Amino acid sequence: MTKVAIVYHSGYGHTAVLADKIAEGVRDAGQTPVLLKIENAAQDFASIIEQITAADAVVFGAPTYMGDVSGVFKVFADATAGVFFTGAWKDKLAAGFTNSHSFAGDKGHALESLTILAAQHGMNWVNLGLAPPGVTAAERGPDTLNRVGSFIGLAAQSDNASPEITPPAGDRETARLFGVRIAEAAVRWTRGAQPALSEAA
Ligand SMILES: Cc1cc2nc3c(=O)[nH]c(=O)nc-3n(C[C@H](O)[C@H](O)[C@H](O)COP(=O)(O)O)c2cc1C
User: Fold this and answer.
1) CA of 199 to the centre of ligand 1 (A)
2) Of 32, 100, 156, 167, which residue has the fewest beta carbons closer than 10 angstroms?
3) Nearest C-alpha to atom 19 of ligand 1 is from which residue?
4) C-alpha–C-alpha distance, residues 83 and 36, integer Å
5) Does residue 158 line the site of ligand 1, with CB under 6 A?
């Protein structure tokens, strides 16, 4: 089965809700999610890095703090520099998600940081693939899919309330569909990975 690693940080549990829903989507697509939570900046990242290396696709996730990925996630990203020199993640599929309090909140910048991390490792980016909602502002509600209208990755919005109730249902379902999309893309991608093609590169 195709393995999709979901590596994420979540300071207060809201981004973790999305990680769990992405994992559900991967399972719904008949594939295997590997949830890898970054706990803190001081931890040893070796096991997470090994499990990413063993996966077919990786979804990076972080809350947006001060208009970028959280500092803890950035420490993890810097710790992957050793992998950069080996090229071990080159040609894996990658995707990303974030969550923040404001509708905009500069979370597009956090997603951009995740795309750059993937690009530096030579990974191939899978975008959200879900059109922004074609509804009026008045019609847009907690059940609306891709509620904040993101393209490059999953962007969710959480109020200042418990992760049990926010982000809302539409963001959670968007995350599940994103998991399905990444898993299906990974199946197609690994099916096409013939050794002869790699040797020709
Ligand atoms: C240090 C810090 C910085 C934040 N910066 C932003 C920000 O730039 N934009 C925004 O919309 N929300 C910002 N927030 C709100 C968080 O993105 C929001 O609470 C989010 O749901 C936290 O996710 P988590 O529970 O996974 O940590 C910030 C929160 C913290 C703690």
Assistant:
1) 44
2) 32
3) 101
4) 17
5) yes
The predicted model scores a pTM of 0.96
Give the model's pLDDT for residue 192: 80
Secondary structure class of 115 (helix, strand, coil): helix
Average pLDDT, the chain: 95
CB atoms within 10 A of CB 96: 28
Most ligand 1 atoms within 8 A of CB, residue of 21, 99, 101, 162 to mutate:
101
Cβ neighbour number for residue 121 with a 10 Å cutoff: 22
Q: Give the structural domain span for 106.
A: 3-200
Assign residue 58 the CATH number of its domain: 3.40.50.360
Residue 14 in this model has a pLDDT that exceeds 70: yes
- pLDDT tens, position by position, 27-48: 999 999 999 999 999 999 999 9
Check pocket membership of 101 for ligand 1, CB cut-off 6 A.
yes
The atom number, within ligand 1, closest to the CA of 167 reads: 21
Residue 103 Cα: closest atom of ligand 1: 11
